[in-house]
Amino acid sequence: MTGQRFPLANNDIIRIDPTGADLHAEAAALRARGPATRVELPGQIIAWLVTEPALLRRLAANPLLSKNPHAHWPDYLSGRVSADWMQRWFETDIMVTADGADHARMRGVVSDAFTPRRIARLRQAVEGIVHRLLDQVGAAPVGTTVDLHASFSHALPMLVIAELFGLPESLHDSFRRKVDDLFCANDDNDDESVVDALAAHKTLYALLADLVTLKRARPGNDLTTDLIAAYEPTGAFGSPPRELINNLMLFIAAGHRTTVHLLSSAMVNLLTNPDQLDLIRSGAARWEDAIEETLRQRAPISNLLIWYPVEDVHDEESGLTFRQNEPVVMGLLAASCDPQVHGPDADQFDITRPTRAQHLAFGHGPHYCLGAPLARLEAQVALPALFARFPALELATPKELLPQEAIFMFCGFDGLPVRLTP
């Protein structure tokens, strides 16, 4: 834990690298300082970052930790933390930043529309999308280099969300461009990108408002229609409710990027560990084992923002006290790679690891990710189809040279050049 690679803001606080250049090394440095440590986030925001799995679970399930900055973060209420900063990193008026009865109400509305039956019905659509994308990938001349991140990992969740929302095909291109703009702007770490991110957010919000208006006039068998019915039981027309559109935005933010990184990370893991891929092909292991181990070893959301203690919270087992209103960040990657739980090789990919499913990639407690079954479904369909279509697939670039997503909140690649070797 050298000061040069992970600089100290002062003698006690590690300054988090906003680009996430070496998340596993940074996670190890944070774990070495105890179950939780003080960090400086981008924007000179001081917070606790929790790395011990047991402590993370206790805090995530503790009702004395709020997700609502409007009520429990003085720095936000005073204006020291700007609304632009908050909106850049996460929307503040959605289900994931609600608490108690308000959160239960919002989650109930979304859960009633986003049912296991709906997810199961999506399998056929996901299979069709996967095979269409693989046809397009396979159209490239044999031996050429193809970016699977852009053409497959990134495209698949986008098209699945469009199917889930009931988005007309005429709006697909516009939807893809707006989501791309939003994520690309958020990935940069300069002041100019904040303006770009806010503009992208505004245009995507407007597209979703148009979609709600369209679905009011022409309902369908889709999530948007069911949410409209839940929010407007009388069928009254008018301006789309902000909460409805914010929760559609949440599906994009949580359901797209995380699945993109799960897919690309799993592909890289299997291509760089052919012995593990052989276990699956021989029947000695399952695709689900590779998916769970990837979720553990490369948790797509590396650092989950932010909780606020509504009063001082003393944790008996760790001996730590989290003071009222001090921000708390959940280090999902650090916790999921804890050697105390997963062994000394916890940073390595091993689909036979007995603890592979004991990860925190989808969070814990009342805010556990509702989209987890859909992300797993997409990976369960996509990975076997990809490796069956291209059994001799190989990376065109060494793993250590693959471009990484330059942001501290996510663990993922930004490109995946492969050769379609016969």
How does this structure look, described?
The protein has helices at residues 23-31, 53-60, 69-72, 74-77, 83-89, 100-113, 116-138, 148-153, 155-165, 172-187, 191-217, 223-231, 242-255, 257-271, 274-282, 287-297, 332-336, 339-342, 372-389, and strands spanning 14-15, 36-41, 45-50, 65-66, 145-147, 304-309, 313-315, 320-322, 328-330, 394-395, 417-419. The model has no long low-confidence stretch (mean pLDDT 89). α7 (116-138) packs across α9 and α14 (257-271) crosses α16. The chain has one domain (14-419): Cytochrome p450 (Orthogonal Bundle). It is globular and about 60 Å long. Helix content is 51%, strand content 9%. The chain is built from 19 helices and 11 strands. It has 422 residues and is α+β, with helices and mostly antiparallel strands. It has a 6-stranded mixed sheet with strand order 1-2-3-9-6-4.
Short key terms for the protein model shown above:
422 residues, Cytochrome p450, 19 helices, alpha+beta, 6-stranded mixed sheet, 3-stranded antiparallel sheet
How many angstroms separate the termini?
45 Å
Cα shape: globular
What is the CATH superfamily classification? Cytochrome P450
Mean pLDDT: 89
Radius of gyration: 21 Å
Strands ordered across the widest β-sheet: 1-2-3-9-6-4
Q: How many beta-strand segments?
A: 11
Helix content: 40-55%
| The CATH topology | Cytochrome p450
Report on the biggest sheet: 6 strands, mixed
**Elements, N to C (H/E):** EHEEHEHHHHHEHHHHHHHHHEEEEHHHEE
Q: What is the CATH architecture annotation? A: Orthogonal Bundle
State the helix count. Answer: 19
Number of domains: 1
Q: pLDDT under 50 segments (min length 5)?
A: none
Class of secondary structure makeup:
alpha+beta
User: Quick one: CATH class?
Assistant: Mainly Alpha
> DSSP strand (E) fraction?
5-15%
